[in-house]
Amino acid sequence: MATAKDDISLLEHLDISQLNCLNEEPQHDLKSILAGKKPNTSPDAYLKSSADAQLLMNIHFNQAVRIRTLVLRSATDPSRGPETLKLLVNKPAISFGDVEEASDEAFAQVITLNEQDVREGRPVALKFVRFTSVNSLHIFVESNQSGDEDVQTHINAIDVLGVPVGATKDLSGLRQEE
Amino acid sequence: MPLEATMIIIDNSEYMRNGDYTPSRFDAQSDAVNTIFQTKIDSNPENTVGLMTMAHKGPEVLVTHSKDLGQILKAIHTATSKIGGSIDIPTAINIAQLALKHRENKNLRQRIVVFVGSPLQAAGADEREMVKLAKKLKKNNVAIDFVSFGDGIEEGESSVLKSFVDNASSGDNSHLVSVPPGPHLLSDLVLSSAILSEDRGIPPGAMADEAGPSGSGGTNNFEFGVDPSLDPELAMALRMSMEEEQARQAAEEQARQSAGDATVSTERADDAAEIAADDDVMLRQAIAMSRGRDADMGMGDEQGEDEEMDEEEAIARAIEMSMKQDHGEQKKQ
């Protein structure tokens, strides 16, 4: 297995316009913690679920990436941090109906975090082979540390580590010349 | 200018044959569908609108994600021949959600507009189930609007729909509009309601007061029931005539007041001529009061009438004087 030392934060390859999250609070949405294209450090900005504890984050990249490590941090309120995460890759149109009934085999990976993990934002190693060409990563937060489905989930920061695949096709830096 | 994919669910139950809305409930609803379609498409060229029915044999999708008015009209026409049965709101909403999920452009937000013109039945009337469904919609980021009319606005049901909207709304994106029968058009009220306010570029907060004469607005709060943008000259003439009438009424009012002052002053003059003015006035007032009481008790009717006659004379005199003053003013003018 390749060493993780040449990994970079893949947040710089995010496609912000495609970024969306289901069941988020309008004031505390996924964009507020990812729009900076680097892990959020402000304690005031966080992602919060709305109707219940679940969240469905759809994170799109502007080019294919290999993901090796995922970091989720809920420093301000670890008791509301995410517990069970289910990851999917390259499924641009999913809703809660698709993920709630699906069996664990249907997901690329299922992760269970404990309170210590989310407080410190410990990196979680992913099954590398399943994340070799990711255009969009979907994180389904099924439950949070409180164990109560009516307690809203808080997430302060998300980071995705890995390497971009092949040549860049990021053209967002180009501007039309006069 | 929201970027939205909308699914309109229309009611085609037997209740829609009722004629309490002009021309009939179903036709009024068709007009409203047309209005919503046009407004949504006009507000953003990428928006799409679909149409489905929720009664007859079962909920049925007629159009998915179209920008073509012809398709909607055709679907409405098809639905006209399929009026029957009763509505099934939960199933219809679930199907609409599926239809919205498979929209081509994933950037479009999802919205469902439901027309309810018949009483809620079975699962649709069960508030707990409906709230559960509403929460599911909210989780999946689907906004929902209800237009209730006819049998859909009855007290008990509107509370189910109300709690549905309350539970589904995030950031005030879902609305319930009740339209009672009357001389107005269903489509007009839908157009000026909160459902389409955002598409017409009106901030949601401004809906409570005047809508303001925006170009696309059909029936803004222009007081004469015509669209000022369609015929500005007529609107101008109406407004001028209104202002003239108001000015005339104000002048009349003023004249009446000054005439009243005049009569009072003449009375005073008469009293002064009788020397013992104050005493006399007091006496007359006391007599008048006692007479008034008598009249109230049903006695001394004749005297009461006399009193009335005096008052009538006074009024007649006042009017005459004010008329004279009016004439005088007009001559001056």
Description:
The complex is a heterodimer of chains A (178) and B (333). Chain A has 178 residues and is mainly β. Chain A has helices at 30-34, 96-100, 115-120; strands spanning 8-9, 20-22, 47-48, 55-73, 82-89, 109-112, 124-125, 134-144, 154-155, 157-164. In chain A, strands 1, 2, 4, 5, 6, 7, 8 and 10 form an 8-stranded antiparallel β-sheet that branches. In chain A, strands 3-9 form a two-stranded antiparallel ribbon. Chain A is globular, with a radius of gyration of 16 Å. In chain A, 37% of the residues are buried. With 333 residues, chain B is α/β, with parallel strands linked by helices. Chain B has helices at residues 25-43, 69-80, 89-101, 127-139, 155-168, 186-191, 232-273, 277-296, 301-332; strands spanning 4-10, 48-53, 60-66, 109-116, 142-149, 175-179. Chain B has a 6-stranded mixed β-sheet with strand order 3-2-1-4-5-6, sandwiched between helices. The longest helix of chain B is centred in the C-terminal third of the chain and has 42 residues, at 232-273. Classes of the chains: A mainly beta (178), B alpha/beta (333). At the A-B interface, loops of A face helix 4 of B.
